[in-house]
Amino acid sequence: MKIQLDLSGQVALVTGAGQGIGQAIAQRLADCGARVCVNDINPATAQATAAAINGVGGEAMAYPAAVEDRAAVEAMVQAVLARWGRLDILVNNAGVEPSASLLEMTEADWRHTLEVNLTAAFLCSQAAGRVMKQQGRGVVVNIASIAGHATPLPLRAAYAASKGGLVGFTKECAREFAEYGIRVNAVCPGVIITPMTEKLRHNPEMMAKWRADIPLHRLGWPEEVAELVLFLCSDSASYIVGQAIHVDGGKSMV
Questions:
Q1: Residue 148: CB partners within 8 Å, gap ≥ 6?
Q2: Interacting residues of 141 by C-beta distance below 8 A, sequence separation 6+
Q3: Within a domain: residue 5?
Q4: What angle in degrees, to the nearest 10, is found between the helix axes of 20-31 and 222-233?
Q5: 107: in domain
Q6: Distance between CA atoms of residues 37 and 83, nearest Å
Q7: Residue from 83, 74, 48, 73 nearest 62 by CA
Q8: SS3 category, 193
Q9: What is the CA 229 to chain-centroid distance, rounded?
Q10: Which run of H or E residues covers position 142?
Q11: What is the rounded distance in angstroms from the CA atom of residue 188 to the CA atom of residue 183?
């Protein structure tokens, strides 16, 4: 059963919301009454998510942009303000996950991963935080990973570094923003059924290993991550600050 929360009158910005976890988050926030800016680097998927929300009676706008670009981020926040006059919720979800050994990874892939997974969260949090400070309240949720909590992922050095950094950034951002009435937390998904994991899910050996390593013996769904994000964005989580909460079927505890 889905939790029932009221976000009526609130405005949310979700990055990387064209598919997977970001899409599920955008749709769930809209289900509960939030007006949602759907960001994605891919214009077609951003438009598709926004159209799906609008098609069921919600209110959404698509804003394709590269969130590692400061000018693009600031323009996006201004577009949200021009449309709705406020910004209450930021979900930093955009991410990339290149696969390569340390000895073979290119410097370009390393830098791009940190820019999209970590620098973008800084840029978006800074731009949105300035608006939220003036409002006297707001919520930021960063989508990190169990890879940010010493759970090794083979051939994912750049990804693990970026997500570990995002967890640390979450805690310091939470400390600074709390003074302005802005709550900041992170959600750390495990193995979720998304386009990002599709290739590996076609590998029988990998699937068998995942099922063996996860106490619930299954992969998670994007909607299961979205439920926690929804809760953290709501007033029901009003005393939760600076936390990095796992949604991983128990994998990080074994």
A1: 160, 163, 164, 165, 166, 167, 186, 188, 244
A2: 89, 90, 91, 92, 184, 185, 186, 187, 229, 232, 233
A3: no
A4: 50
A5: yes
A6: 10
A7: 48
A8: coil
A9: 9
A10: strand 138-143
A11: 17
How many domains are contained in the chain?
A: 1
List of the chain residues with pLDDT < 70: 1, 150-152, 200
- Extract the tokens encoding 38: 């759907």
- For residue 238, the model assigns a pLDDT of 98
Residues pairing with 36 in the sheet: 12, 60
pLDDT given at position 120: 98
Strand partners, 14: 38, 91
Q: Quick one: CA torsion of 81, 83, 84, 90, rounded to 10 degrees?
A: -60
Q: What is the pLDDT of residue 99?
A: 85
Q: Is residue 2 domain-resident?
A: no
The verdict on residue 63 lying in a domain is yes
H helices present in the chain, as ranges: 20-31, 43-55, 70-84, 107-114, 120-135, 157-177, 198-201, 204-213, 222-233
Question: What is the set of active-site residues?
Answer: 159
CATH number for the domain that contains residue 217 = 3.40.50.720
Domain limits at 182? 11-246
